Amino acid sequence: MWHFNDSHFQPDKLQLTGIPGLETGEGWVALIFCLLYLISIGGNLAILGLVVRETALHQPMYYFLSMLSLNDLGVSLSTLPTMLGTFCFNYREVGFDACLVQMFFIHTFSFMESGILLAMSFDRFVAICNPLRYATILTNTRIVVMGLAILLKSFVTLFPFPFLVKRLPFCKGNVLHHSYCLHPDLMKVACGDIHVNNIYGLFVVIFTYGVDSTFILLSYALILKAVLAIASQEQRLKALNTCISHICAVLAFYVPIIAVSMIHRFWKKAPPVVHVMMSNVYLFVPPMLNPIIYSVKTKEIRRGFLKIFQKS
């Protein structure tokens, strides 16, 4: 149903879409997404609880891991209402303003994840390149300031998005291509001049993903240089092993983003199901994988969980 006010042509509600071509198997799709949510939310809550409970984990590395888990919870909970509504209850409508709110939070948490991964790379850089000053450089106060700076940067850069969308008329229908609201998807059904939205969107992507990924690569170049200067091969492997979890988390986050960008740019005639599935991978894989990666690859996290299970 459409509602037109005096100055804008905007739908009262937007229609969400499931996965094209899988309409007959949406029961199985709903089951898969519910399992993904359980793994993601349960795993990140477990990491947070463990870091809070175990005093041995009250260190900068695990404080940053807690930020990552808290952010991943935000990503999952941002998509949860409309995903469950679409696949579990076949309710595909979302209010226009509610859609803008969801869009803001999904993008904000996604951009925050990039900033947190950069902060974690700085943590690994200090730990390996300047271990004697590790505790004095990464004090609790500085960690809090870094966390607030990441939050503020993401909030400020994404804050204009809902207002940039709100000013546009919508005359190309009200059916979105996903079961949640994203800025590029809303631009496909908007009409009028969307150059400002596209230019500002590109600026935010470069300012966030571009800058963060560049500094992550730079930090690992310096880490590799410091590790190669270590005489003992055993010490080299030990130093690099402390970075494996973070490298896996970086790859889990940036590889889907690069894949989505490549498909949009070079495979524009790809079937709709490909675009939808890649967007789902981009939003669902990092929150689900990060707790698993750190539980498997980080000895202190494994010990903490084993300790809890043994007490139980």
Oligomeric state:
single chain
Distance between the termini: 54 Å
Mean pLDDT across residues: 89
Radius of gyration: 21 Å
Tell me how many strands there are: 4
Number of helices: 12
**Could you say which overall geometry the principal axes of the C-alpha atoms support?**
globular
Which strand-content bin applies to the residues?
Answer: under 5%
Architecture per CATH nomenclature, i.e. the level-2 architecture: Up-down Bundle
How is the biggest beta sheet arranged? 2 strands, antiparallel
Q: Name the CATH superfamily assignment.
A: Rhodopsin 7-helix transmembrane proteins
Low-confidence stretches: 1-7
CATH topology, what is it called?
A: Rhopdopsin 7-helix transmembrane proteins
Order of strands across the widest beta sheet?
1-2
Which structural class should the secondary elements be placed in? mainly alpha
Order of helices and strands: EEEHHEHHHHHHHHHH
Helical content, roughly?
Answer: over 70%
Reading off the top of the CATH hierarchy, the class is best stated as Mainly Alpha
Supply the number of structural domains: 1
